[in-house]
Amino acid sequence: MPDETPMRPPRGDQAVTAPAERAGRKVKATVLVDPELCKACGICVSLCPEHVFDHDANGLAVAARQGDCTACRLCEWHCPDFAIEVRAERSAAEEDA
What domains can you pick out in the chain, each with its CATH number? Predict the structure, then answer.
C-alpha cells in the first residue's frame, strides 16, 4: 500500500534552496500573477522572504520587485488559488551540465 502522507512544501526552517542559489549565484526568475485567479488574500505578500510582492490599487498581488526573486517558490506553493507561477531561468552553464 503506498504511503498516503500528503506532500507539503517545507516550512520556513526547512526551506528548499534553488540549485543556483546554493552555488552562491542569484537566480533569474520571472514571477507571474494571474489577476483573474488572485483573490487578494495577501499570503504571497506575507510569505515572500525577498519582499517581491506588493498590492495593486484593487488589493491584488503584483510582483513589484522581480529582480529580487530567488525562485524559492514559497508564493507558488502557498497560493490557495494557483494564481502564481515562478519561472526560473537556467544559465548557459546549467544547460550544458
Answer: 29-91 (3.30.70.20)
